[in-house]
Request: fold
Amino acid sequence: MNQLNVCLSPALIPLYRVEDYIVVIIDIFRATSSICYGIENGAEAIIPVSQVEECAAYREKGLDYLLAAERDGKVVEGFDFGNSPFSYTKEKVAGKTVVLTTTNGTHALHLSRNAKQIVIGSFLNLSALCNWLKTQDENILLVCAGWKNNFNLEDTLFAGAVVEQLKQLDFKLDDGAIAANDLFQIGKQDISEYLKKTSHSERLKQLGIEKDIEFCLQVDLTTAIPVLDGDRLVKFT
Amino acid sequence: MNQLNVCLSPALIPLYRVEDYIVVIIDIFRATSSICYGIENGAEAIIPVSQVEECAAYREKGLDYLLAAERDGKVVEGFDFGNSPFSYTKEKVAGKTVVLTTTNGTHALHLSRNAKQIVIGSFLNLSALCNWLKTQDENILLVCAGWKNNFNLEDTLFAGAVVEQLKQLDFKLDDGAIAANDLFQIGKQDISEYLKKTSHSERLKQLGIEKDIEFCLQVDLTTAIPVLDGDRLVKFT
Reply:
């Protein structure tokens, strides 16, 4: 029987033999939501990096990259845009390669790099992702990117939403998957309302990006599944 | 405002400045339950160690130690008893020092050693522990010892039970505390039934220790609060 496991923080990834899993990276506010939206809108690739400096280095490669970096909720000077999903529209990203600065997401990706396959999940592509996962006949590890290596509720709730769609199949759930799914039962009636009590949501509100948060909680807005190919996230075909 | 935080796995302890917290160590099946019961029953001290060999070394110290070690649910040959709470009765432990082999619990204790104070929690001493915590006016970190460094449901559910008793006070909850408390809401009607779906419970059942499990889920059987003093757990007075 295949495993359906939820890794509640990147710090716990080393406890899994990722070689045995398809890994889904989850960073709802906002990296994996923006990635799903950007790939849906025709970005040729999205390259996640952890540091603003790494991102800036792509400018010197002289190629036609769009560089995304922000600090304290504001676009860093000299960069094309920040991490808001509203920057990842067709008009802006179609045919382009975007270099995206995201600490938590890149960290999770890096620690999962030996997985059978790495794909990107968010509420935006929830059902498309789950329908694809259902056809794979593999162990699945849902990796919550969390916040500074610790647990967060929004990524866990999304993991619980994936478990909800997959649990009727013949998977063995670990305690993380059971917990995530139970939390999803509590939050699913109004995910936005449920997440208002979290500390991270409070932090994001202070950054003035409530619209981003609402955008990231839309379910099934997109159907593209971003998949890691080398160091680039591209559309699964 | 003081923090009330839940650390879902020992692997996440380094993310907290434990110096700023009273730490509660939680290892429901069965180390911290047995410790609470043993201290309640007059054990002079309980010394947690991680390896059977460390435990055995106390025999050579020539003192009057009771040595507790088990492998695969059976008492290791040459030891006085295993980790079952039923071994920690007045008749067996009153006035004695017990050296207890417990991998997960010792690991969590070790990583928390710089805390302001370290106490031991289990369903057995739930209300006594919470009543004491309420009087402390300190940050509180509930550390789930988990299973092989990963998340487990039974320790998290207990952490949620503590949050339930403390949350009316003026604490700031982190996402771990919110999640643990929400899971407790789901499980509290019948904790034993809720935990039956976990993998660890399945493993313990295979060891034939269902009676231990039921014992460990009894609420408020004891009032003693074990506290760490050097490398010894003693009764808080």
